[in-house]
Amino acid sequence: MKYAVVCAGLWLACLAAGLRFGYWNAFAVVGGAAWLFGAVCSGALLSGDRIRANHATETAEDRKQRLKWAGRFFLIGLPFVVTAIFLYG
């Protein structure tokens, strides 16, 4: 429920920002930023030796929490990217 409220709030902010910057740009930036945060949380932007060091030092609970946040950011960004694609075309 919290994430639906966050998405609705971001959606309204995009509509307001779309008046100034264009709707496609506003939705693309918010969706892209959410996906970028998700990639950072998941560790997808790290090199192999850093991933190995993180895997060796973090607990299973920390890893689960980090990947949960990465999934949340991906799901929050998904409707914004889809909307940006439809608005672009």
Written account of the structure:
The structure is a single chain. The protein is mostly helical and 89 residues long. The protein is 89% helix and 0% strand. Helix 1 crosses helix 2 and helix 2 (23-42) packs antiparallel against helix 4 (60-88).
Low-confidence stretches: none
Count of helical stretches: 4
Structural class: mainly alpha
Relative helix content: over 70%
Q: Number of DSSP strands?
A: 0
Ends apart, CA distance between termini: 31 Å
Query: What Rg is obtained from the alpha carbons, in whole angstroms?
Result: 16 Å
Mean pLDDT: 88
Largest sheet: none
Order of helices and strands: HHHH
How much of the sequence lies in strands comes to under 5%
Shape, per Cα inertia axes: elongated
